[in-house]
Design brief:
The longest helix is centred in the last third of the chain and has 49 residues. With 93 residues, this protein is mainly α. The protein contains two helices and no strands. The chain has a domain of 64 residues.
Length: 93
C-alpha cells in the first residue's frame, strides 16, 4: 500500500489559482468589417469563428471553475478524514 501524502496548503493554493484564472474570462475580440458585397462571406465566416472561440473559451473557464471547486473540496475532505482517523488513533493530525 502506498501512503497518500500531499501538502494541503499548496493544493489549496493551486486550486485557488485555478479558480482565480477561471473567474477571469477574457473578452473575445470583435472586429468590424465594413459592409461590402465583396467582404460579406468573409465577414460572416469571421463572425462565426469568433462566436465559436467565445463559446469554447467560456466552456473551458466553466470547466476550470468546476475543477477548482472540486479540488478544494477534495483537499478539505482528505484533511478532515486524516484528522478523524488521527483522533480515533488517539493522536493529533
Amino acid at each position: 500500500m502506498r501512503t497518500f501524502d500531499f501538502d494541503p496548503d499548496h493544493a489549496r493554493a493551486l486550486a485557488g489559482d485555478l479558480l482565480g484564472a477561471a473567474l477571469t474570462t477574457p473578452t473575445t475580440p470583435t472586429l468590424h468589417v465594413p459592409d461590402s458585397p465583396a467582404l460579406a462571406r468573409f465577414s460572416d465566416a469571421l463572425h462565426r469563428a469568433l462566436t465559436g472561440v467565445d463559446a469554447q473559451t467560456r466552456a473551458v473557464h466553466d470547466r476550470a471553475r468546476q475543477l477548482a471547486e472540486d479540488s478544494a473540496s477534495a483537499v478539505t475532505a482528505a484533511v478532515d478524514t486524516d484528522r478523524a482517523f488521527a483522533a480515533e488513533l488517539g493522536r493529533r493530525a
